Amino acid sequence: MVRPRIIATDMDDTCLLYDGTMSPRTFHMFNRAQAAGIETVIVTGRSAVYVKDMQLPNFHYAICCNGASVVDLHTNTTILKDGFTREEAEVAWEIFSRYPDAFVEVAFTDDAVIAQKDYDRFESVPLMDYMKRSYRKHLIHVVPDLNQYFFEHIDQVEKINCFRSGPAITKAINDELRETGLFFINAAYDVDVLAIPKRYNKGKVLVKLAEKLAVPNEAVYAFGDGKNDVVMIEAAGCGVAMGNACEKVKATAQYVCGTCQEDGLAAFIEENFGI
Question: What is the CA radius of gyration of the chain?
């Protein structure tokens, strides 16, 4: 195996345990990797505002909103940026707006926003408790009229997310988004909707970051578990599926490590590279 120069990892159920925390073993492994000159990269569907405020080890970069932006966490600057065009945002929003019972979050450049009506019923959404705590802690804006806010900030849209709104709504929105031909349907779980333009995803942007850092692809190691990690596992020089990953990720990866609960990521790096 080529020694890694970039270790890229998904968050939930990959470098984080099922309760949303990071084990001491994994935490210290990432810090040792940084000290050894290896770039460490969070690759997540979450917006930058979530990542910046989390108690993570000394990660250098974060690929956020499944590729819409890349943040240098050491300098708190955005080094790569993409997002919806106005046309893409208008088309997507017209579709989401047809489903008033959907629980919709919109990630803009500097915040994540939901409507007051959805925030008021948040406790009824079937998410794990740690996700709800994280969501409440890191959410920036709850607005009375999300439609109005959306069009006031339409040039800053990075991600539109609909989660745990029921199988009928989820399927209907996903089907409509696919029919447009504009969007990459990239949710980690079948019970959610995540729409981003086809120009970017976790894999494409990880490759761009490696090129920017002059790191050859064979030295890029990517770890993931969910369906939205498949493109990252495919794009990296070495893709590693967690033991708890879905079958599609495992089938794509070159290696399968232990589960997140077993510190599978840390064990893989420690045992193969002595870090």
Answer: 18
